[in-house]
What does this fold into?
Amino acid sequence: MKPSAEKYIVYKVGNETYASPLLSIREVIEYQKPKHMPNMVSYFTGVINVRGVIVGVVDLREKFICPSEIHPRTAMLLCDTDRGPLASVVDSVQSVIELNDENFDRNPPVKSKVDQGYLLGVAKTSLGLVTVVDIFKLVKEEQLKAA
Amino acid sequence: MKIWKHLSFKYKMTVVVSGFLFCLALGSVVQFELAMSNIKQAKVDEFDAFSDSLSIMIAAQFYERYGDVQAFAQNTILYTGSKSEIQSTLNTFVSLYGIYDLIIFVDTKGTPIAVNNVGIDGKTVDSSKVMSMNFSEQKWFQNALGGRFTEDTDKGFVGTYFEDAMIDPITSAVYGEKRMGTSFSAQVKNSKGQLIGVITNRANFKWVENEALNFYKALRANDHAGLEMSLLNKEGKVIVNLEYGDKEVPKMAERDYDILLKEDYFKEKYEPALILKEGKGGSMIVQNQRRPIMQGVGFSKVQGPKFIDSIGWNTFVKEPTENLFAGVRSARILFYSLMAGCLIASIILMVLFANRLTKSLLEMVNRMDNAFSNNVRISNTMNGSSISLSNSSQEQAAAVQQSVSALSEISSMIAQTGQNSKLAISTAALARDKAMEGQQIMGRMMNSMSSIQRSNEQLNTIKTVIESIRLKTQVINDIVFKTQLLSFNASIEAARAGQHGRGFAVVAEEVGSLAQLSGQAAKDIELLLGDSQQNVEETLEMIKSRVREGNTVSDEAQRAFNQIAESVEDINQQIKMIGEATAQQELGIQQTNVAMKQMDAAAQQNSKSALEVNNLASDLSQQNSSISEIMHNLRDWVIGVTGFAENTANGKSKQNSSGPSELEAKAELSKYGANSSEVAKYVVKGLNAETSKQIEKEEVDLDKFDRAM
It folds into this structure.
């Protein structure tokens, strides 16, 4: 495979479809109700136990200011950050796609809810336009901000 | 008479009563005077009786004395006795009889044989003087001897010669003083009847005077102050004189010889004496023969069976009229003063009374006036109300008729109601049967419903089956999801693995697409299931709801039928009640009918009564007018026609109101409605109240009036 034809995982948060590089994600798991931790940032909703490992949970929906509902399709994206594994709650995982330069615009003149730092670009998929974000940065920055 | 009309009652009454009183007084006075003069006459006439009594007393004495001398003359001692014996006998006689001053027995030659020597008073009498006298010349001797006696053979006076009252010379000579007396002389015969002499009784006139004195005393015992008595001889000379004189005790004890045998009543033209001269006695009021006082005098001749009338003595009993009529005078004074007092008192009382009476009368008249106007008003009202009553009665009768016809209508309607009720009952019975049928049907429907319900439940099982399918679908979905996740995770691992994981990546993809297919299928199933479930649900719901509806409907129907049944029962009950009520109504109608008939009769009666009342009212009107007339007459009479004398403030008469018109009467009556009985009651009550009030008033007035009288 060509490195430009990367695999991205497409997921939805609220009504918006996002994509993130597949490699940034370690695992996709079902939603687990996080154990609440006091005095945390609002979108840090707690911790969960994944096969014996404690993982912090971040609710992207809350971050992206969407309604946070729990439904059967709700999933968590596990990613390893320098601070440890972190789970991001998304509304649904759609599919895995391959993106190449044809359908992936890395510098779109768009305004989106997500800061440009995170924004990797916009992809043209069969599902429509998808915002490609770097989940690490998204989470990391937030963690920094949180600290 | 014209003036009479103008005078007030008071004056009239004063005049009339005064006149009456005056006549009464006059009559009384006349009667009184008559009575008084009768009394006087009686008193005077008494004196006639007195003088007659005196005459009789004197006569009686005379009779005795006449006989005495003969009794003496027949005493045998006169021819058998000696002189002294004869004398003592004579003395005995003198003392016995007490009136003979001397009894002298004289022989035929006139020579005294014997004489008493003891006088009346028991004192000795000088008889020698007598013995020395010769009496042959004396008249008495000659007459006695000659048998020429003072006689009245008819009365039996025979054999005595009587010398009338005189101053007896013999006794005067013997007693040495004037002695008045009479003598009785009789013949003395011896046993052989030969005349031997004459005996003469020289009687002191006290034999007469004593009688007069006794009588006088007797009369004086019964008052008769100033009483006088006298005796006259034939020539009218006074022989006894009991006179009042200056002393209280009349001069009788002494003989006043200035009067005795000197005063001549005849000469002095003393009327009684003159009448006596004509031979009649009597009594009269006449002035005293010597003194200027009026006396009641009774005078009579001394006559009778015991007296020789020819002696011609006359008695007089006199009393001054002053004494005689003293009682009369005092009676007269008393009478006249009483009469005057009574007259004055009567007049005063009468005037007062007339005043009072006038006032009372006027008051009464005024009140009657009021009563009259009230009566007028009442009678007019009565008129009006009776007319109203009549009309009302007629109206009433008409109304009754209407009522009767209405009642008959009602009656027929009631009958109809009865029939209708019966119909209603049968209809109700039908309804109830139908209701019961309906109930049964409903029951059946309920059964169907419940069977439907049961089918419904079976349908439920379908639902559950679908549900379980659904659940399974869920599981499938879950599996699909997990598979998807797995595929993603596989992709991730494949990506991580890089080169080595390419094959795995394909597998992952395939797995992913499988999952998607499954997922799609599951979705389709779900959709289908969803539809089916929805259908089933809807059907179930529909059936349920239909069943529910059916249930509710049947419930309602049940209830309705129940209600119908109940209502039918109620209807039945009510119809029964209607039936009862109808029966009662019938009764009621009958009773009302009867009542109507009675009312009709009553209305007729009312009509009649109204007419009667009308008549009475007009009568009353007439009476009122006559009363009015009478009242005015009375007033005129009491106060005079122009009323100028005594028209007091109360006397002004009220103007007679002409009474209410019929309209007013009707208006009054309308207050009491057209109810005829009420009208009648009102009329009668009003009339009665007024009348009784008036009557009471009148009664009170009459009482006052009576008491005033």
Observations:
- Strands of chain B lie at 100-107, 112-115, 161-167, 180-189, 195-204, 228-232, 238-242, 282-287, 294-301, 314-320.
- The longest helix of chain B spans residues 326-497.
